[in-house]
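Weekly sync, protein design subgroup
Attendees: M.S., D.O., the rotation student, P.L. (late)

Item 1: inverse folding check
M.S. brought a backbone from last month's batch and wanted to see whether the design step gives back something sensible before we order anything. D.O. pointed out we never logged the input encoding, so this time it goes straight into the notes. Structure tokens as presented (203 positions):
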């Protein structure tokens, strides 16, 4: 009986198994996609809350604010207060150009830290931002790194025909930045500069 049923309807069993497996695979990937989407949403929500907290803390920051703040957040918080004011201007780029150089330098240092990749920084930002990174580093006492980074700056300078682009040197620079916690040092030295030059950098 079973043998006869299989001979006539065995293909249905095969189809049923295939459908079951297919449904299981779809469910697996759907669950995986949902989990990934949920994790991304939570990460974005956490970042929004973090930025909102920084905004409330630094919108009108004082010396007391800086004295009690985590050194790793001061540069970002102060620059965020600049950014919020620039966004309200009808011409943010012109407003940035009119900012005091010290504030411009801090702004550029924060952009460099946020990009976290020299290729991204030098290829995706405008000339007015890129041209300030070396003096910005020198301003906070990181002349050695400023001199080291100049080669990469020259590499991305369209007017400099003496230095050719090198992906390997870009990679080496990113590795150096990572291995030596350069971004952490920029934030730390930037925070010290802000504290020591409060009246000059106040928003």
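Designed sequence read out in the meeting:
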């Amino acid at each position: 009986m079973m043998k006869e049923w299989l001979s006539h309807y065995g293909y249905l069993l095969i189809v049923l198994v295939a459908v079951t497996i297919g449904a299981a695979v779809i469910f697996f990937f759907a669950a995986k996609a949902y989990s990934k989407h949920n994790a991304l949403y939570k990460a974005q929500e956490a970042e929004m809350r973090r930025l909102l907290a920084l905004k409330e803390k630094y919108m009108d920051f004082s010396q007391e604010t800086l004295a009690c703040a985590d050194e790793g957040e001061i540069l970002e918080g102060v620059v965020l207060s600049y950014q919020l004011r620039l966004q309200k201007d009808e011409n943010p780029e012109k407003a940035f150009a009119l900012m005091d150089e010290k504030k411009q330098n801090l702004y550029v240092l924060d952009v460099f830290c946020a990009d976290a990749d020299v290729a991204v920084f030098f290829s995706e930002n405008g000339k007015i931002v890129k041209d300030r990174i070396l003096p910005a580093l020198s301003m906070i006492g990181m002349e050695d790194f400023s001199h080291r980074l100049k080669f990469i700056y020259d590499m991305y300078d369209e007017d400099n025909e003496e230095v050719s682009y090198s992906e390997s040197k870009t990679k080496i620079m990113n590795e150096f930045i990572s291995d030596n916690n350069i971004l952490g040092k920029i934030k730390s030295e930037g925070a010290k500069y802000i504290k020591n030059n409060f009246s000059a950098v106040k928003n």
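Discussion: The longest helix spans residues 2-58. The chain has a mean pLDDT of 85.
Action: P.L. to compare against the previous round before Friday.
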